[in-house]
Amino acid sequence: MPYDPQRHHRRSIRLPGYDYTQPGAYFITIVTYNRMPLFGEIVDGEMRLNECGEIVRAEWLQTAIVRPYVVLHPDEFVVMPNHVHGIIWIIDTNVGATRRVAPTITTNPPRGPDAGSIGAIIGQFKSITAKRINSLRGTPGAPVWQRNDYEHIIRTDKALARICAYIRSNPQRWPDDPENPFRNPL
């Protein structure tokens, strides 16, 4: 089926006109394809990661190592059975110029998020983890993540504290979590 921009256009969840490469804190949620619990299980309110979950955890932590303009804090991140919550801090205002790709003359406009943006960081994270998980499972090319992710710009210390508490308490709330395919209906 040929590409039809009217039919195949996805509505962006991003704030129009906002530069997602600029310094700040961003709350991220990424969900597995069809909400499949791929990363382990919650036992007595604690997440027990399996091999796929360990891949996700390791790659999240690698994000700050390969991107000097990113800072992560361990209590601002959790891998759940079928989703991930975390906070990414972009810190360096001077790095933006070196992260941008030089313009080229082309008849096709560039596709995808700006280099160094939250969208690019999450896209790379999803790509790397999907390849490693599919290699482990012997399922090359199988979808691991849903197409979109959720990101929220954290603007105040109060919002940051609330989001950190939400992330830390997520495993304890798993039995009632809407992302839990095995939750107890009321």
TrEMBL record:
<dbReference type="InterPro" id="IPR002686">
    <property type="entry name" value="Transposase_17"/>
</dbReference>
<protein>
    <submittedName>
        <fullName>REP element-mobilizing transposase RayT</fullName>
    </submittedName>
</protein>
<dbReference type="InterPro" id="IPR036515">
    <property type="entry name" value="Transposase_17_sf"/>
</dbReference>
<dbReference type="GO" id="GO:0004803">
    <property type="term" value="F:transposase activity"/>
</dbReference>
<dbReference type="InterPro" id="IPR052715">
    <property type="entry name" value="RAYT_transposase"/>
</dbReference>
<feature type="domain" description="Transposase IS200-like">
    <location>
        <begin position="21"/>
        <end position="170"/>
    </location>
</feature>
<dbReference type="GO" id="GO:0043565">
    <property type="term" value="F:sequence-specific DNA binding"/>
</dbReference>
<dbReference type="GO" id="GO:0006313">
    <property type="term" value="P:DNA transposition"/>
</dbReference>
